[in-house]
Each structure stands twice: as C-alpha cells, then as structure tokens.
Amino acid sequence: MKYEKITLKELGVTVELSTFAPADRVAEQHAILHVAPCGQYFAGQFSRIAQAEQALLSMPQCAGARIIFKRYFLSDATNQAPIIREREKPGTEMCSVSCIEQAPLDGSKVATWLYLVHDMQVENSDGLIVARHNGYSHLWKMGMCSSEGDSAQQTTNLLKGYEETLQRFDATLADNCIRTWFYVRDVDTQYAGMVRARRENFVEQGLTPDTHFIASTGIGGSPADTRALVQLGTYALVGFQPAQQRYLYAKTHLNSTYEYGVTFERGTLMEYGDRQHVYISGTASINNKGEVVHVGDIVRQTERMWENVGALLAEAGSGFDDIAHLIVYLRDISDYDIVRELFSQRFPEVPCVITLAPVCRPTWLIEMECVAIKEHQNPEFRDF
C-alpha cells in the first residue's frame, strides 16, 4: 500500500491518499479529503472540497481513475445535503453518493471519503452504481432512507426495497451483500428498533447464527431527511464463487454478535486471484464475552479497539500495513484531541477521518471501521 498526503494550498484542502496498484492489474485508491474552515460557511467549504475532488482526478497518480463511491460527513445534513445534491445531479452521476450528519471533528463542516478504481466499466442503474470488470459486478447503493413509521418499520422498508433492487441482478441479500452501514438518528433510543427489524428480516432471508450475517457498521448519524430515523448504505458483489468469501471472528478477543442480540459479522474477507479485501465492521472496546472494556477511559478503549481490529486482520492474513482507510467515530467531542494524537502516532500515513457519532452502547466512547487490501495470489479465482 502506498500512502501520500497532498496539500492543495490554493484550495485549503488536504488529500490523504492510499493506492493499491499491482503491476498490470486493476488499481484501487481510497482518499480522505479535509478542508480548512477558513472562516467560511458551508457553501464555501464544499466548493473548495469539490474543486479538490476534480484536482485529484487530474493528478498523474489518479489518471484514468473513476470515483465509484463518495461519502460526505456533514455538520448539518438537513441544510447542507441540498447544496451537495445540486452539484451531484441525482440520477445521472456515475458514483454512489452518501450524505450523513457525522460532523468532522477538525473544525470543518465537511469531509469526504472517496473510493476510486481504474479500468472498470461503470454505469448508473436506476440509482445503483454498477462497476464491472473480469466477470464481477460491484453494486454500490448509498443514502437509502424511509420516512414512514418508527426505526423498526423504516429498517424493514429499507431492507425490503434493497432486496428488490438486488433481484434485478439475480442477486440476494444473503448471497451477495458484502457490507452494510446503518446510520441511526438518536442511536441511544432508536438503535434497538433497527436491530430488531434487521434480525427479523435476516431470519426471513435465511441469515441466522447457523449460516452467516453481513459485515456492518451500526452507528449514530442523522439523515438529511428529518423524518428519517435510519439511513442504509450497501455494497454487494455478483459473479464470485462462495469459496471466495470468508467471515472473521477473532474468538480470542471477540464474541459472536448474536450472543447479545445483534446480527452482523465482525469482518469479511473477499479473496480474488490477485488480491484480498478485508472489510472490518464497526469495532469497539469489547471482550470475548460481549462486555464493554475500560469504561470511561478513552485511551485504553482506543488501544483495546486497535487490538480487536488487529486480531481480525490477522485472522485474514493481513495487518495494519494493508489498511486503505480508517473511519473513527467518537461519542464525546472533548475526546477529539486525545484520539487525534493517538491515531496520528499509530497511523501517521493512513487516510483517516474522525467524526462525531455516538456508538450503539452509551459506555462505548469510540468505534472504528476500515478496509484492508493485500496482494495475494490464488489461481483458483479470477483477478479483481
């Protein structure tokens, strides 16, 4: 993995870029864009970060790249998302766009995570972005919301709607969905409804403790629509063999999530002929009995969280040097300076954004997720 930090002084934007580019193979890049506030309102900050996105695509290291997915972390999604939608032109863009209120904690109003690929055929299929290469179809659909009912009903509506979308590709939630994100408004009160509805839906789809679940992050975050209590983001894959997918448990450090009533996998390994992808779900300071560890201590919770993530990566034959990006969620804004320093020391080069987003248990102060990419040869499978 190659890491770069690019400072666009004229725009007041810093680009943290990771690049995985094996010789004569598809290259992948993850970028986190940070904008200096410069005393501007949102429109000014967003304009500069949008210009930085275009500038990035014109750089030699990103020549020919396509942005497949982008997520905007916002300080006030209800007022800011409409400004973004004016530029993105919903229904015509060739990347999947997600806007969520999880304020960047560097003092800005917006930060952006981009996923870029080279040499893929990309199309917009009724709001779902399809990236095709070598017999695989990568399906990205973000920003799904429902405005009817409580958090349980909205979750049911979202999952059923997504399942119908997958049917267009002869795909199912159980067989093809690799990763989900559930953003829950007022997570301390609304999370339980989402969890219950997801569990009931999964049972209907044949997803049980005896089969498997899906790698996921369930975290506090407010959709732009004030009526929406839950927002869903998804990534699915069509065209792979079941043997290419393996779930990660790290039983020495973590317990099975169903033991405390939730239904997601701690991590998922996807293996291709030329590489492997490791999707680490939202991970916090927890032990293998499902107990919160180091209550009230942000430093020790951060260290235990890293230990858990490291155990999951190791089970996949990967490690911290393979991480392509990091997203960090904090409950308490006053912990930002401490956590920023910890991450800058431990991961000085990895693209990273730290946001204000309460974790699903009040005593968890911090959570993180990541993707790792590692070169790996397996002639039984097609290249990525």
Please outline the helices and strands.
Blueprint: E1 2-8, E2 13-20, E3 28-35, H1 42-57, E4 65-74, H2 77-88, E5 96-101, E6 110-118, E7 121-125, E8 128-133, E9 136-145, H3 151-167, H4 173-176, E10 177-184, H5 187-204, E11 215-220, E12 230-238, E13 245-248, E14 267-271, E15 275-283, H6 298-315, E16 323-330, H7 336-346, E17 352-356, E18 366-375
Parallel strand pairs: 4-5, 10-11, 16-17
Antiparallel strand pairs: 1-2, 2-3, 3-6, 4-6, 7-8, 8-9, 9-12, 10-12, 13-14, 14-15, 15-18, 16-18
Q: Strand count, sense and closure of the main sheet?
A: 6 strands, mixed
Strands, count: 18
CATH level-4 homologous superfamily of the largest domain: RutC-like
- The chain-level mean pLDDT equals 96
CATH class of the largest domain: Alpha Beta
Shape: globular
The domain tally reads: 3
- Secondary structure class reads alpha+beta
The CATH architecture of the largest domain can be named as: 2-Layer Sandwich
Task: Write the H/E string, N to C.
Answer: EEEHEHEEEEEHHEHEEEEEHEHEE
Report the C-alpha radius of gyration, rounded.
19 Å
Question: How helical, in percent, are the residues?
Answer: 25-40%
For the largest sheet, list the strands in their spatial order: 1-2-3-6-4-5
Low-confidence stretches: none
The termini sit apart by 16 Å
Strand content: 25-35%
- By CATH, the topology of the largest domain is 60s Ribosomal Protein L30, Chain: A
Count of separate DSSP helical elements:
7
